[in-house]
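Entry:
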Amino acid sequence: MNILLMSMPDITLGYPTKVITPPNLAIISLAGNLDKKHKVKVADLISRRENIQGAILEALNKTNPDVVGLSAMTFQYNTALRIAEFIKNVSPGIKIALGGYHATLMYEEIANSNDGEHFDFIFRGESDLSFNEALNILEYGGNLRSVNGLSFKENGKFIHNKKRRLENINQIKPPDRSARLWNDCNLLKQPFDLIESSRGCLMSCNFCNIQNMYGKTFRTYETQRVIEDIKSARSLGTKIMLFADDNITLGIPKFEDLCEEIIKHGHNDLIYGVQASSLGIASSQSLVKKMSRAGFKYVFLGIENASKKNLDALNKGDIVNESKTAVKYLQENGIVVAGGLIIGNPDDDYESIEETFKFARDLKVDFAGVQFLVPYPKTVIREKLLKNGLLINKDNFKLYEGGFATTRTKYLNENELNSIKHKMAKKYFKSRKVNTFNVLLKHKKSSLKLLKGAVGLIPDLIGFLLFGKMMKLFLNENKIADRHFQKKLKTNEFNI
């Protein structure tokens, strides 16, 4: 069968496409786990945002697919729905499958609404292996009821098979990056890709929906498998890799071993980034030293908040001291720190939000990724917000990307929250936007790569201090979002 897999073009406001166009890891993992008898191609629509209709038609013409698979997060679901409708209008015979977090959480609601008309299959949970099972039945015959984790149509109505157990992670084959139709995803004009060394998380943060996908589990790939994946990616020209693990620091010895193997195999000439918990990083100074030697230059650190009351409400526990220690360890080893912060919690007022911004400033994080609390479907925090009348946006999922308030607090409405975020970002981070040169030159090795890769950005940087415009895009993201609220709402509006 001919298979076309598509990721959505929608982006979060914190990642301007002039700086980064991230590829999708899930769909190349699906591609890597299909039998060779299936011909599969992958289309990252984020690299074709200027003309989505044209990109879809180009991909359809090049692949002549029997099945199109769409992967979407919650804030991308509306786009996936419109793409499915567009494809059905162009080629009614094509079967369309939906997968990803939103499909896993909301499959019943989708199937029971008019949205279900545009999808033939919904894959719930991990689909690395179930997708291939279903394709083989479609082509060679069999009973689709045997594919656990699949919802499919029978006589026009969806049948929901049993929930699928988590896969043996070491039976999942590496991603197939060669299946991409377009290879132009980048970070600072450098070829950029995603990789994973583990899946799942054991923490109980009530705002997160990872456990709805994987349960409360943590599974790791064999280190050699990860090394081979890095080797494969760099053979295709990749220069920067981001580990997309849910919580990589749950396995400190495994992570240290990975760093050592990266060095051993000479892959530490690449630039790596990772998201990590403050608890994990603070627990091991030796890990951070090994990360630095292995080429890790960027960590998105889950600081979340400065208020003990808010941290307790999020089921994070009091991690303020650990956040301080983690930032210290990372910056001592020259690793750039992006501090992930959440505001708009139920008990937030003006003073508590300002406390969080002050905390990020005093920590001297290089970037402050301040997001609003997002009430993802089926999370514990969403139910609490509903119960207390604080969820003011139940169904407009395209705003569920963290840049805009979709809830209110006990003391502030959504408009006040947006305004305060703007004001605090301007007050506490404006002075740091000119610090780009120092941030990027923390490493002689990585800075030379970034300087070389950023040559293509020079026309855009006239009038700013070297990389000043890039930093302005990052650090004034909050300001831009509030000043041009309606304009930014159109950021993810496409002619489909």
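The two ends are 26 Å apart (CA to CA).
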